[in-house]
Amino acid sequence: MDSKLIIKDIKAKKFEKIYFLHGEEAYYIDAITNAIIEHALEDHERDFNQTILYGKDANALNIISEAKGYPMMAERRLVILKEAQDFRGLEDLLPYFEQPANQTVFVINYKYKNYDARKKTIKAAAKNGLVYKSAKVPEYKLIDWIGNFVKSKGYGITPKASMLLAEFLGNDLSKISNELDKLNILVEPGTTINEIHIEENIGISKDYNVFELINAISVRDITKANTIVNYFNQNPKAANIVVVVGNLFNHFSKLMKIHFLPNKNRETVASTLHVPPFVAGQLLTATKTYNPKKIAANIALLHEYDLKSKGVGNSSFTSGQLMKELIYRLMH
Question: Domains (ranges, CATH) in the chain?
Answer without folding.
Answer: 3-134 (3.40.50.300), 139-202 (1.10.8.60), 210-331 (1.20.272.10)
